[in-house]
C-alpha cells in the first residue's frame, strides 16, 4: 500500500556494496520513472545517470578530494569522512540527477506569460523524480539517501558521467544494502500543516 511505502522510506547512512535486487531491475526502475513521472508542459527536463563499480567509487573520490581541499584533511577526518566513506561511497551505486536548463529556457521563450514559473516547476519535477526513484529503491530493498554535494567539482562529475557540460547537477542518491533499519524523523502535527475547508 502506498501509505506503508511512504512510511518505510527513510535516509540510510550505513550501506554495504551489495545488489539486493539485480542491477537490471534498478535500471528498469530508473527508466520507468523517467517515462512516467509527469513534468510541466511535458517538458521532461530531468536526466539521470546510474553510476556503479569504478564510476561510483570515482564519483565519491572526487567529492572527498574536493571536501578535503576546502576543509583541510584534519577537519574532514573529524567531521565528514565517516559519512562519505560509510554512507555514500560504501554503497553499490549512485544515481545522479541532472536538469537541462535549455528546456526551461525554451519554455520561457515560448510561453512568456508563465516565464517566471518555469524554473520553479523544473525544481518540482526534479523533486518528483528523486522521490520516485528513492521510493522505488526502498521497495526493492535498498537503503538510500539524497545528497547535494554540488558546486565543488561539478565539471569533473559531469565529465566522469559523460554528460553534456550544460546540464546542471541537482542531486546524488547513493544506495546499497542497508546495514540497519532507519528511524523516522519527527514531523509537525497535521493540525499545523493540513487544512480542510
UniProtKB/TrEMBL annotation:
The keyword Translocase does not apply. One of its GO terms (biological process) is cellular response to oxidative stress. The keyword Oxidoreductase applies. Keywords: Cytoplasm, Oxidoreductase. It is found in: Cytoplasm. It comes from the Bacteria. SUPFAM superfamilies: FMN-dependent nitroreductase-like. This is Nitroreductase domain-containing protein. It comes from Porphyromonas cangingivalis.
Amino acid at each position: 500500500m502506498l501509505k506503508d511505502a511512504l512510511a518505510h522510506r527513510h535516509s540510510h547512512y550505513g550501506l554495504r556494496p551489495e545488489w539486493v535486487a539485480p542491477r537490471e531491475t534498478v535500471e528498469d526502475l530508473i527508466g520507468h520513472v523517467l517515462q512516467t513521472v509527469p513534468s510541466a508542459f511535458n517538458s521532461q527536463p530531468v536526466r539521470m545517470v546510474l553510476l556503479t563499480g569504478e564510476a561510483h567509487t570515482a564519483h565519491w573520490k572526487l567529492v572527498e578530494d574536493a571536501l578535503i581541499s576546502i576543509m583541510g584533511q584534519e577537519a574532514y577526518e573529524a567531521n565528514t569522512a565517516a559519512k562519505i566513506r560509510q554512507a555514500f561511497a560504501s554503497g553499490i551505486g549512485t544515481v545522479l540527477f541532472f536538469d537541462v536548463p535549455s528546456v526551461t529556457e525554451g519554455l520561457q521563450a515560448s510561453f512568456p506569460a508563465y516565464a517566471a514559473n518555469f524554473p520553479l516547476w523544473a525544481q518540482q519535477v526534479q523533486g518528483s523524480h528523486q522521490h520516485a526513484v528513492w521510493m522505488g529503491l526502498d521497495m526493492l530493498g535498498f537503503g538510500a539517501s539524497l545528497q547535494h554535494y554540488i558546486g565543488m567539482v561539478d565539471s569533473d562529475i559531469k565529465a566522469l558521467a559523460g554528460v553534456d557540460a550544460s546540464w546542471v547537477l541537482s542531486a546524488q542518491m547513493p544506495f546499497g544494502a542497508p546495514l540497519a533499519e532507519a528511524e523516522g524523523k519527527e514531523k509537525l502535527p497535521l493540525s499545523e500543516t493540513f487544512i480542510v475547508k
